[in-house]
Amino acid sequence: RKEDRYQSxxxxxxxxxxxxxxxxxxxxRAAEAARLRGAADRLLAELRAAEEAEARLSREEAAxxxxxxxxxxxxxKRPLWDVSARAxxxxxxVDRAFNRASAAYMAVLSIxxxxxxxxxxxxxMFLRRLEGAEARGDSEAAALYxxxxxxxxxxxxxxxLEGQGLLRLTSEPExxxxxxxxxxxxxxxxxxxxxxxxxxxxxxxxxxxxxxxARVAKPGFAxxxxxxxxxxxxVVEARVRLVPExxxxxxxxxxxxxxxxxxxxxxxxxxxxRRRVHVPEVFASRFPVTFAQYCAFLADxxxxxxxxxxxxxxxxxxxxxxxxxxxxxxxPIARLDPRTPIFAVxxxxxVAYCEWLGRKLGRRVRLLREEEWxxxxxxxxxxxxxxxxxxxxxxxxxxxxxxGEPFPEPVGCCPRDESPFGxxxxxxxxxxxxxxxxxxxxxxxxxGSWTNPTSLIxxxxxxFHLRDLNRSTDVGFRVCFxxxxx
Length: 486
What we know:
This protein is an alpha+beta fold and 486 residues long.
């Protein structure tokens, strides 16, 4: 149509000139984007090298720290101090390298907002930062990087952002029914949602990322509670060994083996290094050992060896906490309820109690190891307290949980101090001796106690200690056994 044609040669010339210039402009912009992308790729390689160097130094730092005791002299600690300083510098270099690389890719996008290579590189960088923030438990940084991944991933990390994971759950024997609850935050608590049936084992189901509790049951067997943490796009393999109904001794709880987050990042807590590890199955006592239970042990020792019980008598200074009766039995002093957790005993007496109870049960009874204690308290998700991630004095027995002077109370006095597995009084009550060395001559203790006035001490990643030969009025113990000793 005539009206659609150029009306003059000049109009045709101008349109053609604009077209040619746009081609040249696109070519120039493409060349500049390619140049900047090459520089960004080199900076990304530097970032990866910095991350590898930081990881090596962090491993070296952790190994040196684990090999040293707090009392070691300065000359023994200098290598650790040197490595720690280099590790801190390496972490700062990783941050600088990240900033340089991300800025370079942003420069590419300022020229070509649709550059797929730059967008993919940024999405991967932000995803790694997101995963690191989630591993640290840094929810603010995680939210920031999750938004950045969503902005640049172009569908590549849809599964990771949606948070879908895959749970493969098996049981021994098979054919067990599974009810699944998800933990939902209702500050300060993590509360189980109403359980929903998943089917029978073995099963494979997709689940949104989050923390879950599976109840696994089969007629003729004791129900098992299995804590599960589902990550972004990951596969979780969980296996539960069901035991015959009535075979678990009274007062014990089955803790199925599985992956759990242990440790922390705060050095002033003397925490274990934060990591996700597999902790084997263990059967833990629901409560710490009480005065009533310990008195039965003393009575048996007295019957067997006369005054030998005095070696295990709970006392502190001039104050004795049990009394011998004419009939050969023992009772706590009048002001202590028999259900109060035992305290003021040495590590050797806790071991002797384990051996005595083991003979009665036909099991190899012992104290919990540190990773076992943390799994009992934290489930699979690395929560800071058995009930969730925030502290309140109403939730555990501590120095400020009641008005007036603190005083020990019977086990179970704080119902919220219960872990996903049903183990009680792990945060408060008494600090618990563990089968682990803190330093030469000092044993690890875990948890807070009835006399502690500082909330930090009640965290599940907090570690303290007691001298092997010492006693404390706020240190007791909990017992366990495992299949190897069954």
